[in-house]
Amino acid sequence: MTDHSKIMGIPVPKLTMAETVARVQAVIQAKKQKLYHIVTLNPEIAMSCQQDQELRGIIDEADLLTADGIGIVMVSRMRRNPLPERVTGCDLLFELLEAGNRRQWSFYLLGGSEETNKRAAEVMQAQYPRAVVAGRQHGFFDPSEDERIAADITAKRPDVLVVALGAPKAERWIHAYKDRLDASIAVGVGGSLDIVAGTVKRAPRIWQRLHAEWLFRLINQPSRWRRQLILPRFALKALFYKERGELS
Record's family (predicted)? Predict the structure, then answer.
């Protein structure tokens, strides 16, 4: 059984990136009928789960959680039950593309603008020629189109459904349709299609190693400052959160 570290009551498995990719590979090879839902847990989702019981239920029902963001990992370390490393949605997507290129997996891209979605598909086919972009759909669609999109995904039967609708919208959408989507894996990846497409620049490796990607994004996208306010609030609340079973 996989060991876990609890973050505000949410059990996050202690898995490395390599172990996560290996698990995805095993799920795809098993060709099970049930969709395998991966949630890349970030501080925003963890905080929202404290008030939003519907979202908390979705997270609890997910098949796998990963530590998306250094805040999640740092809190686990300060609580002396450390997660091994970050497994972000963006990094996971690139690792799955690498594995998919070796194993000829098929992908469906859901999210981003039409320009970003189309460009991401083109980049993927150029850089990962043995992986297949089975279908795609931009993220600016009306809820009345949900059924059509779900039917299109099922018709294309992708190994990996990449959902870039932002959190927690991606998690809600996957959960709402998971019993009807004929795909092996579904994972929310935030704005990662923008990075694949090259419309948004990712932080250089040195910033990533220093765990300062959030600062790089803030400098390059000052409009994100309101979202970043949640980070210190999350750190304080998560650090002093009393998990069930802990002594007073």
Answer: Belongs to the glycosyltransferase 26 family. TagA/TarA subfamily.
Asked whether residue 234 carries a pLDDT value surpassing 70, the answer given is yes
C-beta of residue 107 within 8 angstroms of C-beta of residue 130: no
Check residue 200 and give its pLDDT.
Answer: 85
Q: Please give the Cα distance from 186 to 161 (Å, whole number).
A: 5
* d(C-alpha 174, C-alpha 179), whole Å: 9
Q: Give yes or no for a cis peptide into 204 (omega within 30° of 0).
A: no
Domain residue ranges in the chain: 10-239
Cβ atoms of residues 98 and 128 within 8 Å: yes
Q: Which helix (H) or strand (E) holds 225?
A: helix 225-228
* Token output for 131: 């992986």
The one-character DSSP state at 179 is T
